[in-house]
């Protein structure tokens, strides 16, 4: 994923599929806060569940997040 493509997702909630350093795939529904260059990691997507390196992102798609109030 390119930085310019990732910046178009800022402020959106997406279902993000990515790999960790061992190659295991994860899919999370997460909100994108920012895209930044982090030293020693490179370009990363800053999300509500942590940072994800752009070169590890496999797919993404728009997701709807439903807010649920505590009962």
Give a brief outline of the structure.
Helices cover 7% and strands 52% of the residues. The chain has 71 residues and is mostly beta strands. It is globular and about 30 Å long.
Written overview of the protein:
- By secondary structure, this protein is mainly β.
- The protein has one domain (3-62): SH3 type barrels (Roll), CATH 2.30.30.
- Helix content is 7%, strand content 52%.
- The chain contains 1 helix and 5 strands; from the N terminus they run αβββββ.
- It has one helix at 3-7; strands at residues 13-19, 25-38, 42-47, 50-53, 57-62.
- Strands 4-3-2-1-5 form a 5-stranded antiparallel β-sheet.
- It is globular and about 30 Å long.
Radius of gyration: 13 Å
Q: Indicate the overall shape.
A: globular
Count all strands and give the number: 5
Average pLDDT for all residues:
89
Following the backbone from N to C, one meets helices and strands in this order, namely: HEEEEE
Name of the top-level CATH class: Mainly Beta
- Termini separation comes to 40 Å
**Strand arrangement, major sheet:** 4-3-2-1-5
**Percent of residues in helical segments?**
under 10%
Number of individual domains: 1
* Classification by helices and strands: mainly beta
Regions with little confidence, pLDDT below 50 for 5+ residues = none
Helices, by number, come to 1
Characterize the main sheet. Answer: 5 strands, antiparallel
So, CATH architecture? Roll
Strand content: over 45%
The third-level CATH topology is SH3 type barrels
């Amino acid at each position: 994923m390119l930085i310019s493509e990732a910046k178009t997702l800022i402020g959106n909630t997406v279902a993000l599929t990515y790999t960790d350093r061992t190659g295991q795939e994860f899919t999370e529904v997460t909100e994108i806060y920012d895209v930044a260059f982090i030293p020693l990691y490179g370009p990363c997507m800053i999300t509500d569940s942590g940072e994800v390196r752009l070169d590890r992102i496999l797919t993404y798609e728009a997701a709807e997040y439903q807010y649920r109030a505590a009962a």
